[in-house]
Amino acid sequence: MAKKRVAAVVKIQIPAGQATPAPPVGTALGPHGVAIMDFCKAYNAATEAQRGTIVPVEITVFEDRTYTFVTKTPPTPVLLREAAGVDKGSPSPGKEGAGRVTAAQVSDIAEIKLPDLNANDLEGAKKQVAGTARSMGIEVV
């Protein structure tokens, strides 16, 4: 069987289990001729267990208007805000703090994010997560 030719790769961040044909889904997939409602149903079914979190998705659209999608892990800042119990990061990191996370929480977040990070091992992933926390004004204790 011949390989399908890829027309586009679309990346969107959508709340898990809450995809609707409205923007950003409709505006991202509409120009490619994808059946938006079918995608929304499939995405909502695949992410129902993570409801309430932001889950990035990478959609590969083929020339015949079929598609496949792969869900990724939630963004690191979302996981850090959740662990620190804050609504947003500091407006001026380095000068004022936004919250605190423990080294154990950083390790847990690094384990969750490891498949999507470009780190070679868990230690590298921990350093990336700690760097993100620092840039958000969240202190690692």
Mind sketching the topology for me?
Blueprint lengths: L5 E10 L9 H5 L6 H11 L7 E9 L4 E5 L4 H9 L14 E3 L1 H11 L8 H15 L1 E3 L1
Parallel strand pairs: 4-5
Antiparallel strand pairs: 1-2, 2-3
Structure explained in plain terms:
The chain has helices at residues 25-29, 36-46, 76-84, 103-113, 122-136, and strands at residues 6-15, 54-62, 67-71, 99-101, 138-140. Helix 3 (76-84) packs antiparallel against helix 4 (103-113) and helix 4 packs across helix 5 (122-136). It is built from five helices and five strands. The chain has a three-stranded antiparallel β-sheet with strand order 1-2-3. The protein has a two-stranded parallel sheet with strand order 4-5. The mean pLDDT is 84. 36% of the residues lie in helices and 21% in strands. The chain has 141 residues and is of the alpha+beta class.
Which tags fit this structure?
alpha+beta; 3-stranded antiparallel beta sheet; 141 residues; two-stranded parallel ribbon; elongated; single chain
Structural class: alpha+beta
Q: How does the major sheet shape up?
A: 3 strands, antiparallel
State Rg: 18 Å
State the helicity in percent bands: 25-40%
Overall spatial form: elongated
Low-confidence stretches: none
What is the H/E order?
A: EHHEEHEHHE
The protein's oligomeric status is single chain
Strand-residue fraction? 15-25%
The number of helical elements comes to: 5
What is the number of beta strands?
A: 5
What strand line-up does the widest sheet have?
A: 1-2-3
Span between termini: 55 Å
Average pLDDT score: 84
